[in-house]
Write a structure and sequence with these properties.
alpha/beta; ten-stranded mixed sheet; 8 helices; 295 residues
C-alpha cells in the first residue's frame, strides 16, 4: 500500500490526541489502509538550569525518549481497538506542524485534535491545528472529543455551494458515509443580503426564482456522487441563512461535518474561508476540511 493511502495522525500525549488516534484507527481499519502516528520534538528555547538533573543533562535525548513513549502508547491504543491495522510511528525534530504538512502530501487523510498539536517540550498552541488546516495537502479532520468517540452510522453532514472544493467535500462525504453505512445530509444555504460598506440591505429579488436557482445548485452538487454511491441515503436541506449556522443546526445528531476549505458564499459567489474556520470553533462533532493538493 503506497504512502498516499495511509491515514496520518498528529499525537502529543494529550487525551484529545489519543481520542483522535482511536477515531483515525477506526477509519483506517474500515478503509483497509495503514495508520501513521507522528509526534514532534522541539527543544525549549529557554531552559532553567536549576531544573536539570545533572550538569550534563541531555534535554534533546530526554524529549526524544518522551516522544517515543507517546507514539508507542498511541500505537498500543490503536492496535488494542483495531488489531487488524498496520501502524507505523515517527518522531520528528522541530515544529510538529511542519512535519505534518510534509506528511499530508502523501496521505489520504490527516487527523489532529481539536485543541491543537504541540511538539513535546513546548506549550500547546491552538494555532498549530489552524495552520495545518490552512496549508495541508489532503483532507484534514479536526477531531472533537465532547460527544463522539468513534465513527458509526450516524448521519454525515456536507456543505454544498457549487465550488470546486465543495465538490471535493461532497465526494469525500459520500465515500465516508458509504464506508460506515451512514445516511448523508447535504446542506446548501444562501443569503440575499448584500454588504455595502458597513451596512447591509436586501435587494428586491424574485424569491421563488432565487430559491429555485439555489435548489439547482444543491441538486447538481450531489448528483454525481449520488450516482457513484447509490446505497447512501441523501437528505437535501435548502435554507436561506448563514452557512455556519445552518450546518451547525443540522449537525446536532451527526457524526461528521464535511466542507471545503474555501468556497462560494451567498448568491454572488464571494470567496471566504470563514465557514470552515467557524465550524472548527463551534461544532460539537469532528469536522473534515477538504483541501486541494499543495503541489
Amino acid at each position: 500500500m503506497g504512502r498516499s493511502q495511509r491515514v496520518v495522525v498528529g499525537v502529543d500525549g494529550s487525551s484529545n490526541s489519543l481520542g483522535a488516534t482511536r477515531w483515525a484507527a477506526a477509519v483506517a481499519s474500515r478503509m483497509r489502509v495503514p495508520l501513521h502516528l507522528q509526534c514532534g520534538v522541539e527543544r525549549p528555547l529557554c531552559v532553567d538550569r536549576s531544573f536539570d538533573l545533572a550538569p550534563d543533562f541531555d534535554w534533546g535525548e530526554h524529549l526524544c525518549a518522551a516522544s517515543r513513549t507517546i507514539v508507542d502508547n498511541a500505537k498500543n491504543i490503536a492496535l488494542e481497538a483495531y488489531p487488524n491495522i498496520t501502524v507505523s510511528t515517527e518522531v520528528t525534530g522541530g515544529f510538529i506542524a511542519r512535519a505534518l504538512l510534509e506528511s499530508s502530501d502523501h496521505a489520504s487523510m490527516l487527523v489532529v485534535g481539536q485543541s491543537g498539536l504541540a511538539s513535546v517540550g513546548s506549550a500547546l498552541v491552538g494555532s498549530t491545528t489552524q495552520l495545518v488546516v490552512d496549508q495541508a495537502g489532503c483532507p484534514v479532520v479536526v477531531w472533537k472529543g465532547d460527544r463522539v468517540s468513534g465513527p458509526g452510522n450516524a448521519p454525515v453532514v456536507v456543505g454544498v455551494d457549487g465550488s470546486e472544493l465543495s465538490s471535493r467535500a461532497v465526494e469525500k462525504a459520500f465515500r465516508f458515509a458509504a464506508m460506515f453505512d451512514a445516511p448523508l445530509i447535504a446542506v446548501h444555504s444562501w443569503s440575499s443580503a448584500l454588504t455595502a460598506g458597513i451596512s447591509k440591505f436586501r435587494p428586491r429579488f424574485d424569491q421563488g426564482g432565487t430559491e429555485a436557482a439555489e435548489d439547482a445548485v444543491l441538486a447538481e452538487g450531489v448528483a454525481g456522487s449520488s450516482e457513484e454511491f447509490p446505497e447512501v441515503s441523501v437528505q437535501r436541506v435548502l435554507r436561506e441563512g448563514s452557512p455556519t449556522e445552518e450546518l451547525l443546526a443540522v449537525s446536532e445528531s451527526s457524526q461528521l461535518i464535511v466542507v471545503g476549505s474555501r468556497g462560494h458564499t451567498g448568491l454572488f459567489g464571494a470567496i471566504a474561508g470563514s465557514t470552515s474556520r467557524n465550524l472548527l470553533y463551534h461544532a460539537n462533532v469532528p469536522v473534515m476540511i477538504c483541501r486541494p493538493p499543495r503541489h
